[in-house]
Amino acid sequence: MGNTSSMLTQYDIEEVQEHCKHAFSQQEIVSLYQRFCQLDRSGGGFISADEFLSVPEFAVNPLSQRLLRMLDGLNFKEFVAFLSAFSPHVSLQQKIEFIFKLYDSDSNGKVAFHDMLDVLRDLTGQFISEQQREQVLTEVLEEAGYTKDSMLVLSDFVKILGSSDLKMEVEVPVD
Amino acid sequence: MSLSLSFSFSLAPIRRREKKQQPTAMDTAGKLNSSSSELDLDRPNIEDYLPSGSSINEPHGKLRLRDLLDISPTLTEAAGAIVDDSFTRCFKSNPPEPWNWNIYLFPLWCFGVLVRYLILFPARVLVLTLGWIIFLSSFIPVHLLLKGHDTLRKKLERVLVELICSFFVASWTGVVKYHGPRPSIRPKQVYVANHTSMIDFIILEQMTAFAVIMQKHPGWVGLLQSTILESMGCIWFNRTEVKDREIVAKKLRDHVQGADNNPLLIFPEGTCVNNHYTVMFKKGAFELGCTVCPIAIKYNKIFVDAFWNSRKQSFTMHLLQLMTSWAVVCDVWYLEPQLLRPGETPIEFAERVRDIISVRAGLKKVPWDGYLKYSRPSPKHRERKQQSFAESVLQRLEEK
């Protein structure tokens, strides 16, 4: 487990900070590095899906599998960039972009009905029938002015979520 | 059932907590499919400990598209867990702050190293070897020759085991302060303690010859287990074998019934924790129908960190590390015996005793099962989250 910031030089910290567009302070990046090394038990320079799932709090999260698809094989710089969506210093637009990316599993810039259905399935599990899920989703889509065949793009997401008081922040513990 | 246990830790990431929507009475027309997995009502409710989020931000109002698309609370929880989580913290061994970087302190530290490795360590090895010689030369004859006279043999064996444990403790310059009434040999009682390292057992054994239930280890420890500790009445289990549990439970029950068996010591956490936290207690020790006597152990980290991180070190390396440190200083508190209260489930009883031990030793409680070190959490927890979200979606759908 990485235990001293001397493993990370000042240049490294600045490079990571540039890459995540200053979403985190230098101290937070050092803390995140310690956490990264703690999770990366095999020392491969990236955290494997298994290592993420060894955190019980993460493993019980309904969206863990979708997140793992985005997290798998990230090195530290990319890891910090991934987490930057949760920084309090980042704009609402970036947070909505993150949510959009999570929905858009085939990364074609468009979110279809089945993408939204997939996420809803992850969140509700077996407690709603497939039929009910489709019904609910169709109803709210139509109410918002879309149809079942609509392909939502990022600007649609911004329109839908932009007016809400979206709160997506995480505090990095700094020793 | 409600558990009014507080859960707090100093480095909690700020997570946006949305008050979990209370599930209303389910529509009996069967709109909501009931869960096929049983909701284990006996389990302490983890939702009491963890921040729960539902995507429905406003508690009332019609269901809208943005309520379904806004997955930010769930994502925040996941990111919070990635950044810092209470489970990993239980097994973190914090390296001591280096204090020897100064030109004045560095020679002092070097001198200290020389003293520890070249003076203390050989002396301790000598003491330990002496102890073993005395022990083996007394134990083997007693064990073999007094086969017929069981009470006398057992008594002598107890004294000898306590002796060798004292030698072990001396070999680390152990300074142990015992508080409270010493354990007595009575039937229908079980001792439980928090677990930091295998040396917990040695420290407790030095005062009273317990019969302990332990995981069977390989190597020389296993040899000791099967020979000497066997005569103390120790019970073995294998974590990986599922059938093992029933056999072990039966052995436990038989042991506590016996009047002249050594008092039974159980570490209900099931794994070594870093002496700052306690993980959830397994209920096995608490459903034997007997008095539970809690023991709290707290090590003083100034001299050495006694946490045995079994993923990082073998027990031999751990012992060597202890023998080349200045001292092992700890406090042991024998606390008031507890009985199962009427209407209390074994799990509630276990949590109550964990509370007593944690308060006494100044440890923080976390809601995780220690065995999650080796396995994934049960899908029940995720299902509970899914169920609460599903219920709120359907409920708000009704409010058209």
UniProtKB/TrEMBL annotation, chain A:
<keyword id="KW-0106">Calcium</keyword>
<feature type="domain" description="EF-hand">
    <location>
        <begin position="27"/>
        <end position="62"/>
    </location>
</feature>
<dbReference type="InterPro" id="IPR018247">
    <property type="entry name" value="EF_Hand_1_Ca_BS"/>
</dbReference>
<dbReference type="InterPro" id="IPR011992">
    <property type="entry name" value="EF-hand-dom_pair"/>
</dbReference>
<feature type="domain" description="EF-hand">
    <location>
        <begin position="91"/>
        <end position="126"/>
    </location>
</feature>
<dbReference type="GO" id="GO:0005509">
    <property type="term" value="F:calcium ion binding"/>
</dbReference>
<dbReference type="InterPro" id="IPR002048">
    <property type="entry name" value="EF_hand_dom"/>
</dbReference>
<protein>
    <submittedName>
        <fullName>Calcineurin subunit B-like isoform X2</fullName>
    </submittedName>
</protein>
Automatic annotation (TrEMBL), chain B:
<feature type="transmembrane region" description="Helical">
    <location>
        <begin position="126"/>
        <end position="146"/>
    </location>
</feature>
<protein>
    <submittedName>
        <fullName>Glycerol-3-phosphate acyltransferase 9</fullName>
    </submittedName>
</protein>
<keyword id="KW-0472">Membrane</keyword>
<feature type="region of interest" description="Disordered">
    <location>
        <begin position="16"/>
        <end position="44"/>
    </location>
</feature>
<dbReference type="GO" id="GO:0016020">
    <property type="term" value="C:membrane"/>
</dbReference>
<feature type="transmembrane region" description="Helical">
    <location>
        <begin position="158"/>
        <end position="178"/>
    </location>
</feature>
<dbReference type="Pfam" id="PF01553">
    <property type="entry name" value="Acyltransferase"/>
</dbReference>
<keyword id="KW-1208">Phospholipid metabolism</keyword>
<dbReference type="GO" id="GO:0019432">
    <property type="term" value="P:triglyceride biosynthetic process"/>
</dbReference>
<keyword id="KW-0443">Lipid metabolism</keyword>
<comment type="pathway">
    <text>Lipid metabolism.</text>
</comment>
<keyword id="KW-0594">Phospholipid biosynthesis</keyword>
<dbReference type="InterPro" id="IPR045252">
    <property type="entry name" value="LPCAT1-like"/>
</dbReference>
<keyword id="KW-0012">Acyltransferase</keyword>
<keyword id="KW-1133">Transmembrane helix</keyword>
<feature type="domain" description="Phospholipid/glycerol acyltransferase">
    <location>
        <begin position="189"/>
        <end position="300"/>
    </location>
</feature>
<comment type="similarity">
    <text>Belongs to the 1-acyl-sn-glycerol-3-phosphate acyltransferase family.</text>
</comment>
<feature type="transmembrane region" description="Helical">
    <location>
        <begin position="101"/>
        <end position="119"/>
    </location>
</feature>
<dbReference type="GO" id="GO:0004366">
    <property type="term" value="F:glycerol-3-phosphate O-acyltransferase activity"/>
</dbReference>
<dbReference type="InterPro" id="IPR002123">
    <property type="entry name" value="Plipid/glycerol_acylTrfase"/>
</dbReference>
<dbReference type="GO" id="GO:0005783">
    <property type="term" value="C:endoplasmic reticulum"/>
</dbReference>
<feature type="region of interest" description="Disordered">
    <location>
        <begin position="375"/>
        <end position="400"/>
    </location>
</feature>
